[in-house]
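Q: Okay, next protein. This is Glutamate--tRNA ligase from Rubrivirga litoralis. I've checked the sequence twice, so it should be correct. Can you predict the 3D structure?
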Amino acid sequence: MPDAPVRVRFAPSPTGLLHIGGLRTALYNYLLARQTGGAFVLRIEDTDRSRFDADAEQDILDGLAWAGLTTDEGPTQGGAVGPYRQSERRARYDEAARRLLDQGDAYVAFDTPEALEALREGGAAYDATTRGDLDNAVARGEEEARRRVEAGEPHVVRLKVPAGETVAFRDEVRGDVSFDTSDVDDQVLVKSDGMPTYHLANVVDDHAMGITDVIRGEEWLSSVPKHVLLYRALGWEPPRMAHLPLILSPNGGKLSKRSAGRLGIPVSVREYREAGYEPEAVVNFLALLGWNPGDDRELFSLDELAEAFSVDRIGRSGAQFSLDKLEWFNGQHLRALGPAEIARRARPAVDARWGEGGVGEGALVAAAALLRERIAKAADLADAGYLLGHDPETYDPAGVKKRWKDDSARLVALYADRLEAEDAFTEESTEAAMRQLAEDEGVGFGRVVHPARLAVTGVTAGAGMFETLVVVGREATVRRLRRAAEVLG
């Protein structure tokens, strides 16, 4: 575990919406930076221009802001080691590529897509065993290669991976790891359009930006030997590295877009936002999806996570995603909020459902106070129209069949009369009036309370009956009781 301030980075590619796994990677980097008093850097890796999505960078920024992961340096606020978009840093990559070529640690190659496809179909890799038989500077000679480059012939730059070596490094999660270079191909470092690949740009930028610790997904583990060879060739010290375990589907296997879609699990951070999940709950859930605090605690604020986090408690095994567990976290964090804050977060969904200005602030806060223990998401308040000044338009058919008896219309009408005549309209007075009515009519209490709830709310379950009536108000309660008596008969 670092005992000094670190410099970490989150380096997404703007090729689509921010993935929930990407947010976990950003979170772990953020937590380590905050715990050590270091810096959390956002770097946009946009060198793949064929897959570039102009809106994706904004989605990344929005997702990080929603989760509360404030960056210290990045494309919006700048910093001492910018620019923070790789498309604006090309001169650095060109310089590194020239240096690698001059040293003999890289070479230019002219192979056509057809030749590369034939190589793959033959089960071979582009490496020390095949490079001498292909169309490159190693096979054709440096002078011919230089002449073809100067003539403008399309080419790439490849890393010259040495044969018969073992590349060893220490991973902060997995311990000592080693790869035989016979299993490492001659990776393309510069593409035919002159842009660097991830591997070269990643190494150059991590060094130039002073990154001390790299925390990223397990899928990049097999790329580390190439990066170590690049660091060695360029004479630079590699950062500490930690590769996070995969996020697994509830049914086992990697949580891919396809498996997530089949199980109804949102994939992008935007989907979680739009579904009404609380950011604190998503962050808490993701933090424990691969890391544990070493005790039984489950509920954390972002600051508490930063205090407790340590890389050495990240597990090696894949972490299984559970939407049910996320729902539980969401409920816990929601109930920790005050009614006014719940109402604020519910407002967009309420306005979308009932129209802007269709629900007053007082009614919304009162509904939040009443239902905070019963709702899973703040947006669920939009479904409680009966608390937001909207009379029920329909009545639950199953509830009507079960709860609406032959005498229900008469009893709820009588209850309306008594509530209208009462001086007070409180939880105590509305309950007393109902109990007295049941006694006077010689029926059980349930004979009145169940049809009355159905009449006032349209459903058969909810918060406390008399608390609900007070939030609904006397006038609306009486009106709804009489309407149900008329409509349901």
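A: Here is a summary of the prediction. The two ends are 72 Å apart (CA to CA). The chain has a mean pLDDT of 94.
Q: Noted. On to the next one.
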